[in-house]
C-alpha cells in the first residue's frame, strides 16, 4: 500500500548538496571532458557538473564504495565496494554516456581494494582486499572475466593499489606492503606474466603511484615518508624484439633541509606520502598524511656515502597545508589542482601562487541535528562529530565552524533572538556559543551523567530543557551570569531522543527509546500524559498550535497524538523498509517532512497524512531534517556526513497573508533611546557577503569538576 502511494509521488530535486567521501584513496577524479567531477558518496557515485554545479548519482552498489576509476577515453567508469564479512563484494562497470550499469561481478571476498582501466579501454582490472588478495582481469569487449590470479607472494604483505601504463594496453603495476610488481596480460592464452621490481633491501608500504608519460619512470610514495624512483624496463612497442626486464630502483628520496648538517638534512614526510603527481619540468606535487602539500624538484647533486638509505634529493619549492590527510590529487586545469582529504574536504590549489581555497566540504560523520534561526532562512546550523557548522543558504558555503575535539554534538538549538547557539554534547556538557565568532558564552558541565542527547529552549531564552542518555529530563534556568538546575524529571528508562517545547512554553514533550513519549508540565515540573507505543521513539514534535503531537520511531509508523488526553488519533506507515529517524513541520503546520534509514526523504500533507513528494539524493541513512522558516525549502543530513538542501514545489509553499488582512498603523516616528552596545546576533552574519571567509573556532577546555547549582526559587 505504502509503495503504491510512493509511486504516485512527485520527485524532490536537491538545490544543493554538501557531500564528499574523502576516505577513498584516489576517489576524487576529473572526467576527460573536464566538465564533470566524479567521487564516491556512500553507496553511490556522485557526478558534479562543474559548469552549472548540478549533481546526479549512479546507483547500484549495496554498500560503501571503496574504489573508483575512469577509463582514458571517458567512456567507462569502474567502481568497487565493501561488503559484509563473509560475503562477496561487487565490482561494477558503468556506461558514462548512458549513465547506467553495463555489467557487474562479485568475485572478490568482502572488499574490492582498487580498480583500474588499462589504456585503450581493453581491460578492467580489480584487486581484492586483505581477505581476498586476488587480481581479476575483466575483458570489456567480451563482457566477462578472463583471468584470476593471486596478486602477491605469500611472503609479502597485502596488495593495496593499481596503476596502468599510459601506452601499453596490457601492462599495469600492483603495489602494496613490501612488494612492487609489473604484470602483463596475455589475452590469447588467458595467462599473465609478472616481474618483481628489484628494490634491494628496501621494504616499504606503497601508497600513491605515478608513472611518467613515456612509461619509463615510476614515482612510488610510501608510508615511511619517502618516495622511491624506479626505472621501468618495459617495452611498450609491439615491433620491438627486446623482452621486458626487471624494474630497477634508482633511489629512495625525501626532502632536503639546508639548515641541518649533512647526514641529518633528510626529512621524511609525516604520516607517509599519500599522493604523488608529476607536474612537469622535473617537478612533483606531493601530498602527505599530515596534510602537507609540497611542490618539489630533484637536486642536481651527487650524494656519496650517505649514512641513510633515504637521500635528501628533493628541493622544496613551495609548501602549504590542508586539514586532514591528502587522499586525492586531481588536475583541474593547467595551473589549478583539486586536493581531497580524509576530512571530507576538497581544496583548489593554484599552482603559480600556491594559494588554497576551500572548494567543497561536509561532515566526516553522522549529522545528528539541523536547526534554523527563528524567521531567518539565510543560514542553518548542523551538529556532528567534533563540530558545529553554520552554512549560508544563499552562498551555499560554510561560514562558521566550532570545534570540540573528540566529542559529538547530539542536538543544537538557536535562541529566539539569535544571540546564541545552545548545544548538547555526548560528554555530558551543554555549551552555548556566539553565532558569528563561535566564542563560548557558557558551559554547564556534568549536565547529564552519561551524556546529553537532546536540548530545547523556551521562546524567551530563560528556560532550557535537556535530555540525557540515562533517561532523565532536566530543566535549567538560564541567567546572564548563572545557569542553575531547576528540576530533574525521572520517568524514562532509555536514552532521550528529542525534546520539544509547545507554542506557549508551558509543556515539553520528550521522546524516548523505551517506547514512551511523555508530556511534561514545565511550570509544575510534573508529568501530564504518557504516550505508549510498541516502538523505540526517535522523534516527537508539537503541531504549531500545540493541540497535537506527531511522533515516529523504529516501527516505521508516523503517529498523531492528542495533547488534551494523550490518545492516539491517527497512525500511518511512513516507510516500507527503514526506521524513521526525524520529523519536521513547517510553520503553518500544513506539511511536514520525514527521513528514514532507507535513504529516502518525504514531504507529507499533515491533514490527509499522505506523501506528496519523495527525494532519493542521499547515499546513507538519513538521520536529521529541518524545514526552513519560509517553508520554501528544507535541509536533511545523513550518516555519511552529507547535507542536502531540497526545494519544496511551489504549490506546497505556505500561503502568504493578503495585504488587506494585515493591519497597519501609521504613527509619527519617535526618538529612540540610546541603546546598549549590540550583542552578537546571527543576523549580523552577512551570509550574502562574498568576502566573508570561513571562521574556525576551537572551544576551550571545560572544568568537569564543577557541579551545577540547584535553583530553589524557580517560578517565584
Task: Give a short summary of the structure.
The chain has about 725 residues and is mostly beta strands. It contains one helix and 58 strands. The strands form twelve sheets. Strands 19, 20, 21, 22, 23, 24, 25, 26 and 27 form a nine-stranded mixed beta sheet that branches.
Description:
It is a single chain. The protein is globular. It has 1 helix and 58 strands. Strands 19, 20, 21, 22, 23, 24, 25, 26 and 27 form a 9-stranded mixed beta sheet that branches. Strands 32, 33, 34, 35, 36, 37 and 57 form a 7-stranded mixed beta sheet that branches. A 5-stranded mixed beta sheet has the order 1-53-52-51-50. The chain has a domain at 375-651: 7 Propeller (Methylamine Dehydrogenase, Chain H). The two termini are 54 Å apart. The chain is mostly beta strands and 716 residues long.
CATH topology term of the domain at 375-651: Methylamine Dehydrogenase, Chain H
**CATH fourth-tier homologous superfamily of the domain at 375-651:** YVTN repeat-like/Quinoprotein amine dehydrogenase
Radius of gyration: 29 Å
Q: What is the total tally of β strands?
A: 58
CATH class of the domain at 375-651: Mainly Beta
**Main β-sheet, in a few words?**
9 strands, mixed
Shape: globular
Amino acid at each position: 500500500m505504502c509503495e503504491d502511494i510512493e509511486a504516485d509521488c512527485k520527485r524532490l530535486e536537491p538545490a544543493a548538496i554538501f557531500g564528499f567521501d574523502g576516505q577513498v584513496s584516489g576517489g576524487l577524479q576529473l572526467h576527460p571532458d573536464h566538465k564533470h567531477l566524479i567521487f564516491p558518496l556512500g553507496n553511490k557515485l556522485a557526478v558534479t557538473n562543474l559548469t552549472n554545479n548540478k549533481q546526479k548519482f549512479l546507483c547500484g552498489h549495496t554498500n560503501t564504495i571503496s574504489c573508483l576509476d575512469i577509463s582514458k577515453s571517458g567512456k567507462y567508469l569502474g567502481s568497487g565496494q565493501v561488503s559484509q564479512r563473509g560475503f562477496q563484494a561487487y565490482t561494477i562497470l558503468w556506461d558514462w554516456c548512458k549513465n547506467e550499469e553495463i555489467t557487474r561481478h562479485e568475485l572478490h571476498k568482502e572488499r574490492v581494494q582498487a580498480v583500474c582501466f588499462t589504456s585503450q579501454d581493453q581491460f578492467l582490472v580489480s584487486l581484492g582486499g586483505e581477505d581476498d588478495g586476488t587480481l581479476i582481469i575483466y575483458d570489456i569487449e567480451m563482457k566477462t572475466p578472463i583471468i584470476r590470479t593471486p596478486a602477491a607472494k605469500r611472503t609479502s604483505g597485502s596488495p593495496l593499489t593499481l596503476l596502468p601504463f599510459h601506452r601499453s594496453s596490457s601492462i599495469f603495476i600492483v603495489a602494496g606492503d613490501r612488494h612492487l610488481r609489473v604484470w602483463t596480460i596475455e589475452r590469447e592464452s588467458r595467462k599473465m606474466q609478472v616481474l618483481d621490481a628489484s628494490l634491494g633491501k628496501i621494504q616499504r608500504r606503497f601508497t600513491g603511484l605515478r608513472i611518467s608519460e613515456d612509461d619509463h619512470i615510476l614515482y612510488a610514495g610510501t608510508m615511511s615518508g619517502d618516495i622511491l624512483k624506479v626505472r621501468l624496463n618495459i617495452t611498450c612497442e609491439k615491433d620491438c624484439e627486446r623482452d621486458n626486464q626487471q624494474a630497477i630502483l634508482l633511489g629512495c628520496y625525501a626532502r632536503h633541509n639546508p639548515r641541518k648538517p649533512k647526514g641529518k638534512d633528510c626529512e621524511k614526510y609525516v604520516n607517509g606520502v599519500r599522493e604523488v603527481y608529476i607536474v612537469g619540468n622535473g617537478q612533483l606535487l606531493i601530498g602527505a598524511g599530515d596534510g602537507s602539500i609540497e611542490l618539489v624538484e630533484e637536486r642536481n647533486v651527487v650524494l656519496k656515502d650517505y649514512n641513510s638509505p633515504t637521500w635528501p634529493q628533493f628541493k622544496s619549492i613551495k609548501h602549504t597545508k590542508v586539514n586532514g590527510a591528502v587522499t586525492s590529487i586531481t588536475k583541474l586545469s593547467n595551473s589549478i589542482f583539486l586536493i581531497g582529504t580524509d576530512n571530507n574536504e576538497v581544496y583548489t590549489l593554484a599552482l603559480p601562487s600556491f594559494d588554497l581555497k576551500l572548494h567543497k566540504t561536509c561532515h566526516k560523520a553522522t549529522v545528528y541535528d539541523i536547526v534554523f534561526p527563528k524567521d531567518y532562512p539565510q543560514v542553518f546550523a548542523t551538529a556532528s562529530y567534533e563540530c558545529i557548522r553554520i552554512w549560508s543558504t544563499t552562498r551555499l558555503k560554510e561560514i562558521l565552524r566550532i570545534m570540540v575535539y573528540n566529542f559529538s554534538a547530539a542536538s543544537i538549538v538557536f535562541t529566539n533572538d539569535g544571540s546564541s547557539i545552545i548545544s548538547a554534547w555526548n560528554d555530558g556538557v551543554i555549551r552555548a556559543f556566539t553565532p558569528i565568532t563561535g566564542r563560548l558564552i557558557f558551559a554547564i558541565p556534568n549536565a547529564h551523567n552519561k551524556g546529553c542527547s537532546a536540548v530545547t529552549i523556551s521562546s524567551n531564552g530563560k528556560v532550557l530543557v535537556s535530555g540525557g542518555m540515562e533517561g532523565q529530563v532536566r530543566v535549567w534556568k538560564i541567567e546572564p551570569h548563572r545557569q542553575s538546575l531547576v528540576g530533574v524529571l525521572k520517568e524514562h528508562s532509555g536514552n532521550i531522543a528529542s525534546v520539544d517545547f509547545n507554542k506557549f512554553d508551558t509543556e515539553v514533550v520528550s521522546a524516548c527509546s523505551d517506547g514512551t513519549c511523555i508530556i511534561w508540565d514545565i511550570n509544575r515540573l510534573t508529568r501530564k500524559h504518557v504516550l505508549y507505543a510498541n516502538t523505540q521513539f526517535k522523534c516527537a514534535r508539537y503541531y504549531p498550535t500545540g493541540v497535537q503531537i506527531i511522533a515516529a520511531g523504529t516501527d516505521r509508523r508516523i503517529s498523531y497524538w492528542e495533547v488534551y488526553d494523550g490518545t492516539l488519533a491517527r497512525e500511518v506507515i511512513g516507510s516500507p523498509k527503514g526506521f524513521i529517524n526525524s520529523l519536521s513541520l513547517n510553520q503553518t503546520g500544513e506539511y511536514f517532512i520525514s527521513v528514514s534509514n532507507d535513504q529516502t526523504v518525504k514531504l507529507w500533507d499533515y491533514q490527509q497524512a499522505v506523501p506528496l513528494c519523495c527525494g532519493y539524493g542521499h547515499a546513507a541513512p538519513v538521520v536529521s531534517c529541518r524545514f526552513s522558516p519560509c517553508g520554501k525549502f528544507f535541509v536533511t543530513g545523513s550518516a555519511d556526513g552529507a547535507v542536502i538542501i531540497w526545494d519544496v514545489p511551489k504549490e506546497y509553499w505556505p500561503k502568504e497573508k493578503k495585504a488587506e488582512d494585515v493591519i497597519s498603523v501609521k504613527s509619527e516616528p519617535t526618538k529612540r533611546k540610546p541603546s546598549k552596545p549590540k550583542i552578537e546576533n546571527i543576523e549580523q552574519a552577512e551570509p550574502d557577503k562574498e568576502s566573508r571567509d570561513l571562521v574556525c573556532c576551537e572551544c576551550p577546555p571545560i572544568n568537569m569538576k564543577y557541579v551545577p547549582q540547584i535553583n530553589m526559587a524557580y517560578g517565584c
